[in-house]
Automatic annotation (TrEMBL):
Alphabetical list of Gene3D superfamilies matching this protein: 3.30.530.20
CDD domains for the chain: SRPBCC
Matches recorded under SUPFAM superfamilies: Bet v1-like (SSF55961)
Lineage: Bacteria, Bacillati, Actinomycetota, Actinomycetes, Streptosporangiales
Origin species: Nonomuraea cypriaca
This protein's name: SRPBCC family protein
Amino acid sequence: MPAPPEQVFALITDWPRHREWMFLTTAAQVGGDTIEAYTGVWPFGFLDTMTITHWEPPALVRVEHTGRVVRGRGAIRVRPRAGGCQVIWAEELRLPFGPLGRALWPLARPVVIALTRRSLRKLATLTRP
């Protein structure tokens, strides 16, 4: 990202601004450490509830996904780098729908990766001066 870590971390953790960069997602902090994010276009989508489990600005935020569809852990780390910073986004998720979800993952994976990359490119455009 072409911006300092403090700026990028602040944008990433400004939950209402997720709609500006994360594909088809709106988010809000609904409690001290609780986030709700809806991905999709109503009624076709899902609610992703999360609890912030680690908060270390401007370097790291970790969450526990606690929703019906998305469950598991996630982390976003922001590291200083010449000319800006590097964003590392990692998720360890339990797939929904049991064996069917595991069977469909090879088809869904390339789409999920492409949409994640699109979202991060959009995030980068928001951090440019």
